[in-house]
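Example record used in the benchmark description.
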Amino acid sequence: MEPENDTHLSEFLLLGLSEQAEIETLMFSLFLSMYLVTVLGNLLIILVTISDSYLHTPMYFFLANLSFMDICFTSTIIPMILMNIQTQNKVNTYAGCITHMYFLLLFSGLDSFLLTVMSYDQYVAICHPP
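Model output (C-alpha cells):
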C-alpha cells in the first residue's frame, strides 16, 4: 500500500499584485475609484430608467437589469481585492473561496443570459416590427 497525501486545505494564500507599499496605495486608490465609478454609473442608469416614463420599454428594462447585474458582479470581486490590499491579510478560507466563486459564476452567467435576451429583443424589433 502506497502512502497518500493526507493534507487538508482549509485556506488559501493570495499573493496579490505587489509587495511595495507605494504601489499598493496606488492600486488601492485605482481599484476604489474604478469601483465607485462603476457603481455610481450603473445606479444612475437604473434611476434614470425608473424615473423617466418614456424609458419604460423592454430595451431599457433589460438595460436597467444589466446595470444591476454589473453592480452585483463588481461587488463580488472588487471589495475583496480592496480588503486584501488595505489589511495586508492575504488569507482566504476555503468556504470563502467557494462562496466567492459561486457568486462570480452566478452573476457572469446571468450577465450572459441577459445579453442574450437583449440581443433577441433587438432581433425581434428589427426583423418583425409591429
